[in-house]
Amino acid sequence: MLLAGKKAAIFGVANNKSIAYGIARAFRDNGAEIALSWPNETLRKRVDPLAAELKAAFTFPCDVTRDEDLAACAETVRAAWGRTDILVHAVAFANKDDLQNRYIDTSRQGFTLALDISAYSLVALCRAFEPLFSAEASVITLTYYGGQKVITNYNIMGIAKAALEASVRYLAHDLGPSGVRVNAISAGPIRTLAASGISGFHKILNHIERFTPLHRNVTIDEVGRAALFLASPLASGVTGDILFVDAGYQTSGIQIE
Ligand code: NAD
Ligand code: 0WE
Question: In this structure, are residues 182 and 139 in contact, taking their beta carbons and an 8 Å threshold?
């Protein structure tokens, strides 16, 4: 059991399709104790039953836009566990209007909202949890290739993911001297709640089936197993990095069918 006795705080489970749920299950199956966050009472009704199914130690409120929630959730975890070995950040949001039409039309408010929830939340969470991180703690966030290359309609989320990926490197630098590692997983497209709000998502999934080396899409279980690696001592020398779990898409150039 790769994570026997480890304590993992997981942010971003919305339902059993969530990438964070795949990660939570992989951790649980490998001996970790887990705790799940929820941002509001509506999602709490979904998260609590999943937490019970996963035998999570507890669930806790955390809307990442609220400083008081960030402080309170670190305190809740401290009171329950006294430490954190693994922190998973699987949180993103942009206004739906900003994920269609042209990037050039993004408003100041839309830009700020997307960057606040999707990028600033990682550095804020790391700061709140810094006193709790154990000597070999691992922080994992989720990113997407649209932060590195233009993907039609990903728009402001691409800018947020670019900031998130740079943030991973700077956080790895700050926390490295304490032994804490910080990495991102760049997952291929997966039909989650976040993805269900995107019109034409099936076209993206079809494109990936045609043009990835593996000729298929990836699953939340595959992302879960990559997170298991990054959270475990197997990855003790890996920090500040982006691990692609994308069926090889990122490695491909021109392909002639
Ligand atoms: P999801 O909808 O299941 O998860 C997104 C989560 O963000 C939800 O649990 C939601 O509650 C949470 N969230 C939104 N606003 C919040 C706030 N203010 N405070 C706290 N939590 C908030 O979708 P997902 O696809 O599993 O997304 C998880 C992560 O994976 C995101 O960072 C996303 O960008 C990334 N990702 C997704 C894909 C994909 O194709 N699905 C691919 C690569 C990366
Ligand atoms: O990061 C994401 C999705 C993030 C997301 C999704 C939504 C939908 C509903 C953020 N905010 C919202 N806001 C909503 O109101 N992905 C990597 C999945 C995704 O989203 C895309 C993609 C892919 C892939 C949007 C356009 C193009 C491709």
Answer: yes
